[in-house]
Amino acid sequence: MDETKKYLYILTTGPEVAYRSASPFFLATTAALMDHDVSMVFTIKATGLLKKGLAETLTVKEGGEGSNLQFFIDQAREAGVKFYVCAPSLDLNDCTVDDLIENDGVVGGTAVNEMALESDVVITF
């Protein structure tokens, strides 16, 4: 593939359905490894997935490698996927940016819409 594309993954589902949370990280990691520019925006309950220490406790699949969400988060970060947090979702999840793992910034609605308009591919979960 010769042309770099911009991918935007928007996540809305959170820790309450951990089994659904691995796929967006897996797909984002794959796109990044294909040399695309990949960002993930965490909004609504998905922001809760980024709370420090929580991902290690969230089981996506019993047994085997990659059984907890932290495995998928680590892969995405190592591949260069950028993580952005939607500002209003911090309050919804009773947290501050200091409660979250390392990320690439807090964004508002305007920024999220601009990111979507500038992206070649937008995928929501």
Secondary-structure content class: alpha/beta
Percent of residues in helical segments? 25-40%
Q: Please tell me the overall pLDDT.
A: 95
Q: If you compute it from the alpha carbons, what radius of gyration comes out, rounded to the nearest whole angstrom?
A: 14 Å
CATH class: Alpha Beta
Number of separate structural domains: 1
Order of helical and strand elements: EHEHEHEHE
Characterise this structure.
By secondary structure, this protein is of the alpha/beta class. The chain has a single domain (6-124), classed as Hypothetical Protein Ychn, Chain: A. The protein is built from four helices and five strands. The protein has helices at 22-33, 69-79, 87-92, 109-118; strands at residues 6-11, 37-42, 82-86, 106-107, 121-124. Strands 4-3-2-1-5 form a five-stranded parallel β-sheet. α1 (22-33) packs parallel to α2 (69-79).
Helix and strand layout, with pairings?
Elements: E1 6-11, H1 22-33, E2 37-42, H2 69-79, E3 82-86, H3 87-92, E4 106-107, H4 109-118, E5 121-124
Parallel strand pairs: 1-2, 1-5, 2-3, 3-4
What attributes characterize this protein structure?
alpha/beta; 125 residues; 4 helices; Hypothetical Protein Ychn, Chain: A
